[in-house]
Amino acid sequence: MGTRQRAATVSGQSSFLPVDAEEDTARLEFVERLQDRGFKLVKKDPRWLIVGREGLRAHILYFSEPSKEFGIDGGYVSKLTVTDGKKKVVNYDRGWDVEPPESGKVREFYDDIMGCQ
User: Fold this and answer.
1) Quick count: other Cβ atoms within 10 Å of Cβ 77?
2) pLDDT tens profile 70-82
3) Are 80 and 61 in contact (CB under 8 A)?
4) CB within 10 Å: which end of the chain, N or C, has fewer?
5) d(CA 31, CA 22)
6) How far from chain centre, in Å, is Cα 103?
7) 52 pairs with which residues across the strands?
8) Exposed (0-12), middle (13-18) or buried (19+): which is 98, by Cβ within 10 Å?
């Protein structure tokens, strides 16, 4: 596997991050789709993405392959915590601890994240 660099915008600043060409391409495309929907990338490390928008923040464990066993709806996100600054409003850790509400700002935030897979 080769390593290359690709620009990513973190907290409003463009930076070059090392990228494993095969493993990380899916994550980078996921980040780009999130940014296209107005999410700001707060932090990206080899495993976790932290994004925010409109006073909400999400910690996302995203994999390059979907998981029928652990992913939300069999998808790429195996862990997701959404907070409103005070408490967890959505939490999935290979199973639901706090499910997203049926409607409202939190539901829209969750749906936008999941729509980026």
Assistant:
1) 23
2) 999 999 999 999 9
3) yes
4) N
5) 16
6) 20
7) 40, 57
8) middle
3-state secondary structure of 39: coil
The amino acid sitting at 56 is L
Helix (H, G, I), strand (E, B) or coil at 91: strand
What the block records as the tokens of 111 is: 């749906």
54: left (phi over 0), alpha (psi -120 to 50) or beta: left
Report whether 38 contacts 26 (CB < 8 A). no
pLDDT digits (tens, 9 = 90+) for 3-50: 444 444 444 444 444 445 555 788 889 999 999 999 999 998 888 999
Enumerate the β-bridge partners of residue 49: 44, 60
The overall longest dimension of the chain from CA atoms, in Å, is 43
